[in-house]
Structure formats: structure tokens, C-alpha cells
TrEMBL record:
Domain ComEC/Rec2-related protein, residue spans: 215-483
NCBIfam families: ComEC_N-term
Organism listed in the record: Acutalibacter muris
Pfam families on file: Competence (PF03772)
Transit peptide among keywords: no
GO CC annotation, single: plasma membrane
Protein name: ComEC/Rec2 family competence protein
Domain of life according to the entry: Bacteria
Keywords of this entry: Cell membrane, Membrane, Transmembrane, Transmembrane helix
Main localisation: membrane
Membrane topology: Multi-pass membrane protein
Length: 716
């Protein structure tokens, strides 16, 4: 709630919660005086716990407001300010979308020392220094995009980044080596880098990238299309070091600690220490810290011969984390981890006992445990998934049943490999483990790619009608689980009927509608044209090579008619290879000369050369014309003219303009303005258009083009 409200309102809400907590406490004392001891006990129980809950909420809101005004508010004044800085990288970069992202600490502004604060520095070239060295350069600050509970702004605050920044020019850097030969802040980054190189010596390719992502949380080398595959089938939790990983690592350690002559307290202490060492390697992701704290609390209970309660441990871990970092609640990974754990604790055991009894065989117990865990975690995390990802994977149960045994086996093989790979003399002895890890990782990747290519594996909720159908379906489920009352059967029938027929009616009414999914940056764009479960990919580019296939899979496209390659750089070819690994379009249009084109020829696909000022049909009723050497594209759909212009153009009129420049000579009704994060257009540029939408940070915007109505931008 604090991430949505204004910080000033958050401070007021903290005082309101404190007042309500005091009022509930006084009310419990006054109303608790009754002759019936059971009623007195129940009233005091409810009012006391309500007071405790309100008091905790008030304290957390107050901490959030205080942290914001003391550390963030004055830094936000640097938004869109260019200044000379002295900065200190805190870690090695995370490479994504063709850029290097550094967490850096700002030490000086325009030669004046300031209280150090952390920002995220995005560079197109890597810095020639290591952690704890210093760099003097010119940067431009920008604030992250807000507007939601789990927006980029909230997520970056949770990671400690108060602002974003990018360098102004790359030739004016001054590097200053650290005064210490081996500073303390460089130990952990070097250790993680050394362990990562040890894995690279054993395994290469996508398998090594998968192991480093799973073990160390280093996902920068894992291709974006693999993230897309796991997200489509509901197994993205496997690629993030989270509570599940900590639980599996803890179980692996206990297999060895149980065989040592140690008492219960020493075993618990050893497990806690070893898991903390593993946290050092992973960089302390907040969801893994949550799991570690729960393990610490349960270990303390076990060492005193008490039974640890999962919900109490979860609540204590959440309070502890939010007390140390009030911004941690803005992390979507932390929220999903907490909600999934709560769902498993509240519903998992009941569902498992319903599916399988204690006398059931091991296979049935495994199936029951996996199904109950997946269902309970999905139900509790569904609101966040819908709000953040705008969709739901439909193969969560099946994919977890198939992939989880392979994943667990791979993780248990990779843990000893992680240790043995650091010892050069052990190289020959670890080859069986290397072979096992490589085969398991390749099997996991192949199965995830195959399952993600199946039609209908993901339900997109970008359409408000589909979102309403999901809400009605959940209402019917809640009515089924609720107590009986007079109109319950009627309400259930109405909810189910509307939930089933709303998507059908929406599909019938949108048969003639052409939908555009648009994403891009200041240099390139990706446009997917969709109609009646058919699609065409136009103007391929962007650094996210899995973007086009992700859009096609999320929208449940059954047939890909054509692909238009407007540029032949490595970005376009990477996206093309990713699409053609799962789909076979009828036509592949290449603008300009193919320059040999051997890597663009695929069996069963008609290869054509697209020329300027010629019309090409990419979908039935959808025509495309290239102009100005590929810098401009005109699209005609449902008697509407759409214009994609990445460079200057002459006077023109269109119904939709997709651009990254200020084009006052173009007359349009709706504009999609693509820009880099932090490089927003000036007010004068945006004032040229009466209706526009900004596309930043690899966002995807959907535009509906009906046959008999105006072009409209989806608000969800």
C-alpha cells in the first residue's frame, strides 16, 4: 500500500493506523467486561490482535515515510539533471537487452562531496574498472517509471537504487583505482565471479547459463527466450534464487549433517551457517533472505525442542525484512514468495491429504504434493500475477509435475559441482557430475521449449473482458467453498455462465478487429499484427530477442502468416531465429539486399525481397509498404492508415503514428512514442499530439483497430 500512496499520505495513514490501534486496545478493555467468560475471551482476542495488526501497519508505514523523506526525497530532485560525478561501482554489471547495468554509489556531484546514495547506471559499453574503483564522468539522472504497486520505481527502490543514470559521452572517463589493494567491498563480487568462472570451465553454452542462474542468480548470460519459455509454462520460479532453492539446498545439507556425530543444536547451527555462506554467493536476494530467516526461526524452535509454526515464522521474517528495509515490499519477487509460502502453509497440507492418504504409494504422494503445492501457491499469487504480468499460465500443474524432478536432480548434482569446480586437481573426477548436470540441464531446456510451443498454454488478460471472466470464475469458486445460503446456487450458475460466455462473445465481436502489439526503443521497433488467431511480425529489432515470440504465445496465435525483416543486424536475426525455432511462417520478407542471406533461408518458407514503395499482404486485408530505405513503414488495416517512422519524414496524415522522434509534420489521432528509459521526450514534443502513449523499458502496448470504430489503445 505504501508504494501506491504518496509518501505524505503514507505518513498520515501511519498515524491513522496508530490511532485505530489505540482505540481497539481501549475498546477491548471496556467491552471485555461481560459476565460470560467465553464472550469476554473472544472479544479481547479479536480486539487485541486487531490492535496489534494496526499497530504493526502503522509502524511500517511510518518507517516507509521516514526512509523516503530522509534518503529519497532530496535525491529525486536530480531527475533529468546532468552533472559531473565521482561514482563507485558496487558490483560487476548485469547485461540485459544489450546494455550493462551497474549498481553504483555516487560520491561527488560537480566536484562537491555529497552523502553517498545508490543509483543504477546503464551503459552501452562496459566500464574499464572493477568494484570499489572510482570513475569520474558526466551522467544524466532520471527517475524510474511509477504508477503502480510493483512498478519499475518500486522495484528499483527495493533493490536500493534511488535513481537511474546514463553517461553523457564515453570518451571522457577518468578511472581512479582503489587506494586499498584489496578492498573489503570487492571480496564478494570477486568470489561470485570466481565461482561463475569455475562453472564455465566445466560446462558451456545455455546449460552453463542455466546452472549459473539457478545456483548463483547470475541470469545475465541466459537468453531471453529461455526466460520466456519458463514464464509461459508457469515455472519462472525455477530461474530465480528463492525460497524453493533455499529449501532444497537446506535439505541437501541435512542429508550430510544427519550422518555426522552432532547433536540437534550443532546440526541446526551448522545448517544455518552453511546456508548463510550460500546467501553470500547469491547476493542476498530478498525472497531467499525470507526463506533463510524462516529457517533460522524454525531452527531456534527445534534446538529448544519446540515445534516451529510456518505462518509465525513467515510473519516474523516479513516484519524483520520490512523493518530493516521498508522499500522491500515493492519487490514483486518478494511479494510472490510471501504469498506462495502463505498459500502452501494454509492450503497445501489439506489438499495433499485430500488427494493422497498416508498409506498411498510414493508416486501418488509425490503427485499429490506437487499438485497441492502448485494449486495453493497459484491461488494466493494469482492477484499479483494478473496485476503485473497480465496473464496466467495454464500448464503450471503439468509442467511442475514433469520438470520438478529433473530440476531437483540437476540442483543436487550442481551443488557438489559448484564446490569441486573450484579445485583444479579434481577436474578429472568431476566429469561424471558434469555429464549428469549437462544432460539434465539440456533435458530441462528442451522440455520447457516444447511445452511453451504448445498452443493455448498461456491465457492473456490484456483484454478487460477476459479479466472480467476470470473474476467471475473466481467468484463462482468462492461461492462453491462458502457456507450454504439461499441464493448461492443461482449466483454460482450466473457467475459460471457469464465467465464462460463473455470470452465467446468477445471473440465473436472481435473477428474483424486487427490488433497491434508494439514495443521498441529509440532505435528499433517490434510490431506484431494479429487477427483471428493469425499473426504477422513486422519491423523486427530490439535487444529482447524473445519479445516477438512471447507476444505470439501469450495471445494464443495458432498461425504465423509472414515475417518482415526490415533490418539485418544481429538483433533482428536473433529474434528471427527465436521465432523460426517454434513457428513456420508462410512468407519471409526481407527488405533490401540479403547480403548472401544463407542464414535467412529456411526449408518450407517462401523467401521474398521487399522493395520500397511496393505493397505486400502480410495478413488477409492487411497491407504493408516500406519507404525511405526501411526507416518508414505504412500499414493499412480495416481502412485505417498506420505509420511507423523511426526517422524524419515528409507531411503525412495517418490514424496511428508509431515513432521515436518529434514529427510535427505528421497529422495523427493517436501516437505511440517509443523512447529509452530516462530519455523521455520534452513537453514541447509531447504537446504536438493530442493523444499519445509512451513505450519505455521494453513495455508492450496494444492497439485495437476495429472495422467500424476508431483506433483505440488498451488501458490494461
Amino acid at each position: 500500500m505504501a508504494t501506491v500512496l504518496d509518501p505524505h499520505v503514507t505518513g498520515i495513514m501511519s498515524m491513522v493506523c496508530g490511532g485505530l490501534a489505540f482505540f481497539a486496545l481501549i475498546l477491548g478493555v471496556l467491552l471485555g467486561r461481560t459476565e460470560n467468560p467465553n464472550k469476554r475471551r473472544n472479544r479481547r482476542f479479536v480486539l487485541f490482535h486487531g490492535s496489534l495488526l494496526l499497530m504493526s501497519a502503522g509502524i511500517m508505514l511510518a518507517l516507509y515515510a521516514n526512509r523516503y523523506y530522509t534518503e529519497v526525497a532530496h535525491v529525486q530532485e536530480l531527475d533529468q539533471v546532468t552533472a559531473g560525478v565521482r561514482l563507485e561501482p558496487l558490483d560487476y554489471p548485469d547485461k540485459r537487452y544489450g546494455k550493462f547495468y551497474y549498481p553504483v554509489r555516487i560520491l561527488e556531484l560537480d566536484g562537491q562531496p555529497v552523502k553517498p546514495f545508490q543509483v543504477r547506471l546503464s551503459c552501452s559499453e562496459a566500464l574499464e574498472c572493477g568494484p570499489c574503483d572510482q570513475v569520474v564522468c558526466q551522467v544524466k539522472f532520471y527517475s524510474f517509471k511509477g504508477g503502480g504497486m510493483y512498478s519499475t520505481y518500486s522495484s528499483q527502490l527495493a533493490e536500493g537504487n534511488l535513481l537511474g543514470a546514463y553517461p553523457e559521452g564515453y570518451n571522457d572517463y577518468e578511472y581512479i583505482a582503489s587506494e586499498d589493494s584489496f578492498p573489503a567491498g570487492r571480496i564478494l563480487p570477486l568470489l561470485r565471479s570466481y565461482v561463475s568462472r569455475g562453472l564455465d570451465r566445466c560446462i558451456s553454452g545455455e546449460e552453463a547459463a542455466l546452472l549459473k542462474t539457478v545456483l548463483l542468480g547470475h541470469g545475465s548470460q541466459l537468453p531471453e527466450e529461455i526466460y520466456t519459455d519458463f514464464r509461459q509454462i508457469g515455472c519462472s520460479h525455477m530461474l530465480a534464487v528463492s525460497g524453493m532453492h533455499m529449501t532444497l539446498v537446506g535439505a541437501f545439507l541435512n542429508l550430510f549433517l544427519a550422518r555426522l556425530p552432532l547433536n540437534r543444536r550443532l546440526r541446526s547451527l551448522s545448517s544455518v551457517v552453511l546456508l548463510f555462506s550460500y546467501l553470500l554467493l547469491t547476493g542476498f536476494p530478498v525472497s531467499a533472505v525470507r526463506s533463510y530467516l524462516m529457517l533460522v526461526f524454525c531452527s531456534l524452535a527445534a534446538s529448544t525442542y519446540q515445534v516451529g509454526d510456518t505462518l509465525n515464522s513467515l510473519g516474523a521474517a516479513v516484519v524483520f525484512i520490512c523493518f530493516l528495509d521498508p522499500f522491500a515490499g515493492g519487490s514483486v519477487g518478494f511479494a510472490l514468495s510471501v504469498l506462495a509460502t502463505a498459500g502452501i502453509a494454509l492450503l497445501g497440507r489439506q489438499l495433499e491429504e485430500t488427494i493422497a492418504t498416508k498409506s498411498s504409494g510414493p508416486i501418488r504422494r509425490y503427485v499429490a504434493g506437487t499438485i497441492s503445492t502448485s494449486i495453493s501457491a497459484t491461488l494466493f499469487t494469482m492477484p499479483v500475477q494478473v496485476a503485473v504480468f497480465h496473464g496466467l499460465p495454464m500448464l503450471t500443474l503439468v509442467s511442475n509435475l514433469l520438470l520438478l524432478p529433473i530440476f531437483v536432480t540437476m540442483l543436487y548434482c550442481a551443488l557438489p559441482l559448484l564446490l569441486l569446480s573450484l579445485l583444479e586437481p579434481m577436474g578429472a573426477l568431476i566429469q561424471p557430475i558434469v555429464l549428469a548436470c549437462g544432460l539434465l540441464a539440456r533435458t530441462l531446456l528442451k522440455l520447457s521449449r516444447w511445452m511453451a510451443s504448445l498452443p493455448g498454454v498461456y491465457v492473456s488478460l490484456t483484454d478487460p473482458v477476459h479479466l472480467s471472466a476470470l473474476a467471475l470464475l473466481m467468484t463462482a469458486v468462492l461461492l462453491c467453498l462458502s457456507k450454504r445460503f439461499r441464493f448461492r446456487p443461482i449466483l454460482m450458475i450466473i457467475s459460471l455462465t457469464m465467465a464462460l460466455f463473455l470470452p465467446v462473445l468477445r471473440y465473436e465481436s472481435s473477428l474483424d478487429t486487427v490488433t497491434l502489439a508494439v514495443s521498441g526503443d529509440s532505435e528499433s521497433a517490434c510490431v506484431v499484427v494479429m487477427q483471428d488467431r493469425r499473426a504477422a511480425v513486422l519491423s523486427m529489432g530490439t535487444f529482447n530477442s524473445g519479445l516477438a515470440r512471447r507476444i505470439i504465445a501469450q495471445e494464443n496465435i495458432f498461425e504465423l502468416d509472414s515475417v518482415l525483416v526490415t533490418r539485418q543486424d544481429y538483433r533482428a536475426k536473433a529474434m528471427l531465429r527465436d521465432i523460426l525455432s517454434n513457428y513456420r511462417p508462410k512468407t519471409l520478407l526481407i527488405h533490401g539486399k540479403t547480403r548472401g542471406g544463407k542464414d535467412l533461408r529456411y526449408p518450407g518458407i517462401t523467401l521474398e525481397t521487399a522493395s520500397d514503395n511496393c505493397l505486400y499482404q502480410v495478413l488477409p486485408g492487411v497491407m504493408v509498404e516500406m519507404a525511405d530505405g526501411g526507416a518508414k513503414m505504412r500499414i493499412w488495416a480495416n481502412n485505417r492508415k498506420l505509420l511507423l517512422a523511426l526517422d524524419e519524414c515528409s507531411d503525412e496524415t495517418c490514424d496511428l503514428l508509431i515513432t521515436s522522434r518529434s514529427l510535427p509534420q505528421v497529422n495523427t489521432e493517436l501516437t505511440l512514442f517509443m523512447c529509452e528509459e530516462g530519455d523521455l521526450p520534452e513537453d514541447a514534443a509531447m504537446g504536438l499530439y493530442s493523444d499519445f502513449c509512451l513505450i519505455t523499458d521494453q513495455d508492450v502496448s496494444y492497439v485495437d483497430i476495429p472495422f467500424d470504430r476508431d483506433v483505440s489503445l488498451r488501458s490494461w
